[in-house]
Amino acid sequence: MTLVEFLLLLLIAGLAGAAGQSIAGYELGGCLVSIVVGFVGAYIGMWLARELGLPEFLVITIDRNTFPVIWSVIGSALFALTVGMITRRRTLA
After folding, report:
1. Closest by CA position to 40, among listed 1, 70, 13
2. CA distance 11 to 66
3. What pTM did the predictor assign?
4. What angle do CA 84, 87, 90 make, to 5 degrees?
5. What is the total count of domains within the chain?
6. Alpha helix stretches (DSSP H) within 27-67
7. Fewer Cβ atoms within 10 A, N terminus or C terminus of the chain?
8. For residue 61, is it within any domain?
9. Tens digits of per-residue pLDDT, 3-54?
10. CB burial class (10 A; 0-12, 13-18, 19+) of residue 73?
11. Helix axes 69-87, 31-52, angle to 10 degrees
12. Is residue 90 part of a domain?
């Protein structure tokens, strides 16, 4: 994998992570956190799709590495929602 392909993969993961965070309504951090959320979301989304027997939608292939965009956005939203619910500050009434 060349440097350009790696940077392109990071860009796609960052966009998917940012989209997932905005869907969930929780922003966990900046650009680097969005990239991590995008990659974690891709794993969560593909695992969920495999368990439910659902097909892959909108897969981007970069140097024999596939990145499922739709499932990574869905997985990122689930991951951001889970982390946001766990780390949400609780107010005392």
Report:
1. 13
2. 14
3. 0.82
4. 110
5. 1
6. 31-52
7. C
8. yes
9. 888 888 888 888 888 999 888 888 877 888 888 888 898 889 889 989 999 9
10. buried
11. 110
12. no
